[in-house]
Amino acid sequence: MIPNIPLSYFFVVGTLMFFIGVFGFLTRRNLITILMSVELILNSVNINFVAVNRYLFPDNMHGHFFTIFIIAIAASEAAVAIAIILNIYRKFKTINVENVSEMKY
Amino acid sequence: MDIMFYIFSTIILVFSVLTVTSRKILRAATYLLFVLIATAGLYFLLNYQFIAAIQLTLYAGGIVVLIIFSILLTSHISQSFEPVGKLKTIASGLASVAGALLTLTVLLEHEFTASTKPPVDVNMESIGLSLLSYERDGFVLPFEVISVLLLAAMIGAIVIAKKSEEKVTNQENNKSL
């Protein structure tokens, strides 16, 4: 842990980053930027996990492993999401969510 | 040590805002890269070198490159987004600020006392042993589930992204016609 930095500072950073991601998720209209907002949200959760692990439970590594699993899930989610986005682009010639209103083809 | 925390937090917050507000999509991806690298810096400060290395290689190296590739495949670099409607910006901003205030009041009201237990040494050996141990504090089940998930995601991504055969033959027919 870092001397002079209490755990709540990490919470402040994580919370602000999470809600910046939520803001982007709500305002963005492009599928790839929405995906980037989701990455921001996942990343802020990781910061909280690691900080809580280091400050409150330094004698085990549970938060550490949760972060590793979250990163793995984020990677697979990004890969599948980008495959879907490429497929949508091939069919609709756009990745703007407002123009992609048909789910069936 | 303290000052590094403030520097990394400032980088994270400033570039997060730029990521969700930038009009050019490639710039947004670059700002996201800065956010992820600064997060790796925070992990280094907390003495978790392994997870910081994963963050750098997998997030900053892998996911950002994947996102940039898909940007280059789907949009023009010079294209910039039209500004978001005022009502939508205000409504989303209010929702986010309200959520942040609620979460922060609840979090900061609670007193978290840092544990005084001696920290466990997080090195490659202990990480590998507890990832594959099936005793207490072992993570072998999530580890195996994650490996199956990664395989499924890989196959799924390939199947979804490849061109459908029907379409290809149609195109060939059109060409021959």
**CATH architecture type of the largest domain in chain B:** Up-down Bundle
Number of strands of chain A: 0
Structural class of chain A: mainly alpha
Taken from the alpha-carbon principal axes, the silhouette of chain B is: extended
Radius of gyration of chain A: 18 Å
Mean pLDDT level of chain A: 88
Walk me through this protein's architecture.
The complex is a heterodimer of chains A (105) and B (177). Chain A has one domain (7-92): Helix Hairpins (Orthogonal Bundle). With 105 residues, chain A is mostly helical. Chain A is built from three helices and no strands. Chain A is elongated, with a radius of gyration of 18 Å. With 177 residues, chain B is mainly α. Chain B folds into two domains: 1-77, Four Helix Bundle (Hemerythrin (Met), subunit A), CATH 1.20.120.1200; 121-177. Chain B has helices spanning 2-21, 25-45, 49-74, 86-109, 124-131, 140-161, 165-176. In chain B, helix 1 packs antiparallel against helix 2 and helix 2 (25-45) packs antiparallel against helix 3 (49-74). The longest helix of chain B is centred in the middle third of the chain and has 26 residues, at 49-74. Chain B starts with a helix and ends with a helix. The model of chain B has no long low-confidence stretch (mean pLDDT 86).
Structure characteristics:
heterodimer; A: 105 residues; mainly alpha; Helix Hairpins; 3 helices; elongated; B: 177 residues; Four Helix Bundle (Hemerythrin (Met), subunit A); 2 domains; 7 helices; 75% helix; extended
